[in-house]
C-alpha cells in the first residue's frame, strides 16, 4: 500500500537500462551485465525491461510489488534450511514473523531492494542446498545459483569461499576441484573491467581491524535497532555479541564432543553454513561501508540481512538443542521476540515510511515543474527531462488551488505558531551534499491540523508567477511510544531538505493537499534562505 511510482536514488540505473536498450547505445549483453556502482544487477534490469515492455512505461510501483514477492522465494529458501533438521512447520513461524514484516520495510518502498538483497540471499541458500552431503548427485545445480547470487548483488560473492570450505570439510575432492575450476573462469569474467566505487581508508591494520570488527558486531545485531533510539548502539551491540558468543560456544562444544568425524573434517550442517553465509554478508558490508559511517550498518536497505541473520541464528540454535523441552523454550523466546519486533515495526516505522513516501510524492511534482528533485541528487546534477522518456511522473497533487500564491499574500502568520529554521552541512540523510541542508520545525499548530496529506509549499516571494516547490513534513513527537498511546497528540512538524532552489525570499505555507487554498496556513513570510543561521 505504500509503494509509489516515483524513482528513488539508484533507480536511475534501471531507467538507463531501458533508455539504452531503446537507443541501442550498446549491445544487450553489455547493458545487462555492466556495473551499477559496485554491483551487477542483472535481475533488477530484467524486471525493469519486462515491466516497461508490458506496461509501455517503467512503473516503479509495479516493480516494488514484484520485488516484494521475491520475499516468498527467500522464505522458501529459509524453509529448506529448516526442513533439513525439522519437519514440524510450527517451529518455523518465528522466521516468517521476521521476514514478512515491516522490519524489512525497505523492500516495500524501493524497487532495487527486492531484486538485489532478497534474491542474493535466496540464491546463495539455494546454492548451498545443493552442496549438502545428501545432494551429491545433483551438486552441480549449485553453480547456476552461485552465479545468480553474484549477479543479484555483490554480496552474493560471499557464498563462494563458504561453498569451497564446505566441500573441503566434506572431503569431496572431485567436486571441489571442478567447482574451483569453474569459479576461477567465472570470477575472471565477472571482474573483467571492474571498477570499485568504494574507497576504504584506514590509518593502519590495527585500526582497520577494530573498526571493521565493531561494525561487524553492530550489523550482526541490528535486527533489534527498533527497540531504542537513544541507546540504539547499545542494544544492537548487545545482540550482536550475544549471537556471536553463543555460536562460538556451540562450535567449541562440538570440537570437544566425541561425535565420530571420520567422514568430515568438521561437520558443518546446512543450517550452520547458511548462518555463516549471512555473517559473511555482514562482514563484507562492514568492510565496504564502515569508512563512510558506522551508522551505515543500521541503514534500512540492509534490514533484510539483519532479519535473516536473526532468523538463521534461531534455526541454528534450534538445530543444536537435544531435547524437546529446550526446543520449546527456544521457540517461545524467539517467537516472542519476533512478534514483539513485528508489532513495534508496525507502530514505530509508520511515521518514517509516511515521510519517505511523501518526499517521493513531493519530488513527483518538483521535477516536472522545476526540472530538479529536492530530495535526491544532493551531491550531483539532476538528470535532464529526456532521461525520463520511458517513465511518466504520477500526479499526486491534483488540487491546484493550494499552489496559488495570491490569497496567501494578504495573510499574516498566526501569532501562536512557533517556526524555527537552521542550516547544516552535516546531515545524516544527505552526507556529502553539495547544497546546504535546511531544517524547519513548526510547533504550536492548531489542534485540528490533520496528520496526513500535509505539505509545506514554498512560494518565491519575488517571482509570484512561478510555481512553488513542495516539501514533505514529518510529525515529530516527544517519543514514538507516547504517540501510539495518545493518537490525538499533535506534536510538531519537521522538514529537512537540500537548498537547491534559486532565489532568496520565500513565503512558506502549510497546505492540506486534498483541500482548497482557504485551509492553507501561512508559516513564514519573506523567509530569507540565505540568512538562515547554521547550527
TrEMBL record:
Keywords: Membrane, Transmembrane, Transmembrane helix. The chain crosses the membrane at residues 62-82, 89-110, 139-169, 176-194, 234-252, 264-286, 298-317, 329-346. The keyword Secreted does not apply. This is DUF4153 domain-containing protein.
Amino acid at each position: 500500500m505504500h509503494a509509489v511510482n516515483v524513482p528513488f536514488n539508484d533507480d536511475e540505473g534501471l531507467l538507463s537500462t531501458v533508455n539504452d536498450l531503446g537507443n541501442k547505445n550498446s549491445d544487450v549483453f553489455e547493458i545487462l551485465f555492466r556495473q551499477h556502482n559496485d554491483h551487477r544487477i542483472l535481475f533488477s534490469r530484467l524486471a525493469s525491461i519486462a515491466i516497461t515492455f508490458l506496461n509501455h512505461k517503467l512503473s516503479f510501483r509495479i516493480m516494488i510489488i514484484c520485488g516484494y514477492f521475491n520475499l516468498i522465494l527467500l522464505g522458501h529458501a529459509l524453509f529448506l534450511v529448516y526442513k533439513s533438521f525439522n519437519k514440524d512447520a510450527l517451529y518455523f513461524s518465528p522466521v516468517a514473523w521476521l521476514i514478512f514484516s515491516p522490519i524489512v520495510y525497505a523492500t516495500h518502498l524501493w524497487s532495487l531492494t527486492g531484486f538485489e538483497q532478497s534474491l542474493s540471499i535466496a540464491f546463495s541458500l539455494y546454492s548451498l542446498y545443493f552442496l549438502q552431503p545428501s545432494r551429491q548427485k545433483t551438486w552441480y545445480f549449485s553453480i547456476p545459483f552461485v552465479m545468480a547470487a553474484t549477479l543479484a548483488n555483490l554480496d552474493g560473492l560471499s557464498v563462494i569461499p563458504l561453498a569451497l570450505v564446505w566441500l573441503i570439510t566434506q572431503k569431496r575432492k572431485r567436486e571441489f576441484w571442478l567447482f574451483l575450476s569453474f569459479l576461477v573462469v567465472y570470477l575472471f569474467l565477472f571482474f573483467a573491467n571492474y571498477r570499485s566505487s568504494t574507497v576504504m581508508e584506514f590509518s593502519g591494520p590495527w585500526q582497520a581491524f577494530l573498526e571493521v570488527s565493531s561494525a561487524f558486531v553492530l550489523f550482526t545485531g541490528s535486527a533489534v535497532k527498533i527497540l531504542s533510539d537513544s541507546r540504539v548502539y547499545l542494544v544492537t551491540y548487545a545482540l550482536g555479541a550475544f549471537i556471536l558468543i553463543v555460536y562460538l560456544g556451540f562450535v567449541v562444544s562440538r570440537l570437544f564432543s566425541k561425535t565420530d568425524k571420520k567422514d568430515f573434517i568438521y561437520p558443518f550442517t546446512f543450517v550452520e553454513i547458511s548462518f555463516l553465509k549471512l555473517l559473511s554478508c555482514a562482514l563484507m558490508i562492514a568492510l565496504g561501508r564502515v569508512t563512510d559511517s558506522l551508522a551505515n550498518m543500521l541503514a534500512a536497505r540492509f534490514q533484510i540481512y539483519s532479519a535473516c541473520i536473526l532468523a538463521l541464528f534461531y534455526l541454528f540454535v534450534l538445530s543444536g538443542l537435544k531435547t524437546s523441552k529446550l526446543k520449546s523454550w527456544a521457540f517461545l523466546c524467539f517467537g516472542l521476540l519476533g512478534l514483539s519486533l513485528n508489532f513495534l515495526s508496525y507502530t514505530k516505522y509508520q511515521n518514517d515510511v509516511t515521510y519517505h513516501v511523501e518526499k517521493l510524492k513531493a519530488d513527483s511534482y518538483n521535477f516536472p515543474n522545476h526540472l530538479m528533485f529536492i530530495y535526491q541528487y544532493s551531491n550531483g546534477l539532476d538528470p535532464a527531462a529526456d532521461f525520463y522518456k520511458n517513465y511518466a511522473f504520477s500526479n499526486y497533487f491534483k488540487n491546484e488551488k493550494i499552489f496559488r500564491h495570491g490569497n496567501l499574500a494578504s495573510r499574516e502568520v498566526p501569532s501562536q505558531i512557533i517556526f524555527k529554521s537552521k542550516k547544516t552541512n552535516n546531515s545524516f540523510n544527505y552526507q556529502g551534499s553539495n547544497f546546504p541542508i535546511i531544517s524547519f520545525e513548526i510547533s504550536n499548530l492548531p489542534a485540528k491540523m490533520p496528520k496526513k496529506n500535509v505539505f509545506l509549499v514554498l512560494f518565491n516571494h519575488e517571482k509570484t508567477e512561478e510555481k512553488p516547490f513542495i516539501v514533505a513534513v514529518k510529525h515529530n513527537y516527544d517519543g514514538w511510544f507516547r504517540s501510539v498511546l495518545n493518537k490525538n497528540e499533535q506534536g510538531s512538524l519537521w522538514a529537512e531538505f537540500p537548498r537547491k532552489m534559486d532565489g532568496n525570499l520565500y513565503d512558506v505555507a502549510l497546505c492540506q493537499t486534498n483541500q482548497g487554498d482557504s485551509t492553507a496556513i501561512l508559516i513564514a513570510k519573506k523567509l530569507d534562505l540565505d540568512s538562515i543561521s547554521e547550527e
